[in-house]
Write a structure and sequence with these properties.
By secondary structure, the protein is an alpha/beta fold. The protein has two domains: about 120 residues, NAD(P)-binding Rossmann-like Domain (Rossmann fold, 3-Layer(aba) Sandwich); about 120 residues, no CATH class. The protein has a six-stranded parallel sheet, sandwiched between helices. It has a three-stranded antiparallel sheet with strand order 8-12-11, with no helix packed on it. The longest helix is centred in the middle third of the chain and has 14 residues. The chain is globular and about 55 Å long. The N and C termini lie far apart (about 50 Å).
């Protein structure tokens, strides 16, 4: 089987991580990095892909089957749509778009083309998610009334100055919506929503409850990494989010 042709849009910044993965997949004969789309030339040490700042042109010239989009958030929708209409499946970095309207635009073109657009939520590839879904569906956890996630990362000032769009809600009059919930904690939200979709327990099926009977609650606590003091801004400080999770006992001993 011939290696799958891939185009990477956004090879600098976080795109370097994708280059590392593509290097490994290329060595295994699974993919061919056919093109790199970036405003600046990218250094690639394992092959010589065609490079261009025009994604549509690059996909047309290379015949890429897959496009990885790792660019500023405000460019995601237009680039994803360009790739899909060019006949390429898409792996899109999270968050997929800065607004519901932009996300709908992507979804409409996915439906129109029949191609895949997968968002890079790593946890959805974990065996833990389907295992938890089975526990919820089987009633082992009782009626799940809340799903929670927590995490803490230090974000020094350099993190928010690495690019003009980083940490901003808007840039040059365009929505970016980069922040704790939309960026790092998008993973927690996506995982919670994947669990919310689990089928209700059989004893709950006839009850007049909204489906699914879950709530996702998000609370931000911004702290100073040195002293742990609460802050009213996030630049240069650790960001923590805590989400409550509760379950109600069901008849028969389930909790």
């Amino acid at each position: 089987m011939a290696p799958a042709k891939v185009v990477l849009a956004g090879a600098n910044g976080h795109g370097r991580h994708h280059l590392g993965i593509l290097r490994d997949l290329t060595a295994r004969g699974l993919v061919e990095l056919a093109g790199v789309c970036d405003l600046r030339p990218a250094e690639v040490d394992f092959c010589t892909p065609l490079q261009s700042p025009d994604l549509g042109e690059l996909i047309a010239k290379t015949g890429a089957e897959f496009t990885i989009i790792c660019t500023p958030i405000n460019t995601h929708a237009d680039l994803a749509i360009t790739a899909l209409r060019g006949g390429s499946h898409v792996l899109l970095e999270k968050p997929p778009a800065p607004s519901i309207e932009e996300q709908r635009r992507i979804a409409e073109v996915v439906a129109e083309t029949g191609l895949a657009c997968q968002v890079g939520f790593q946890s959805l590839g974990s065996a833990a998610v389907p295992a938890l879904r089975r526990l919820i569906a089987g009633g082992s956890l009782g009626r799940v009334r809340g799903i929670g996630g927590s995490g803490a990362w230090e974000r020094p000032s350099a993190y928010f100055t690495r690019a003009p769009w980083s940490g901003r809600r808007r840039l040059n009059g365009v929505d970016v919506m980069d922040g704790a919930l939309t960026n790092p904690f998008a993973h927690a939200t996506a995982t919670a929503l994947a669990l919310v979709d689990a089928p209700p327990h059989r004893r709950d099926r006839d009850r007049a409850l909204p489906r699914p009977p879950h709530r996702v609650r998000r609370h931000l606590l911004r702290t100073d990494p040195a002293g742990g003091r609460a802050r009213d801004h996030h630049r240069g400080h650790a960001v923590r989010a805590r989400v409550g999770a509760t379950a109600r006992a069901l008849p028969g001993g389930a909790r």
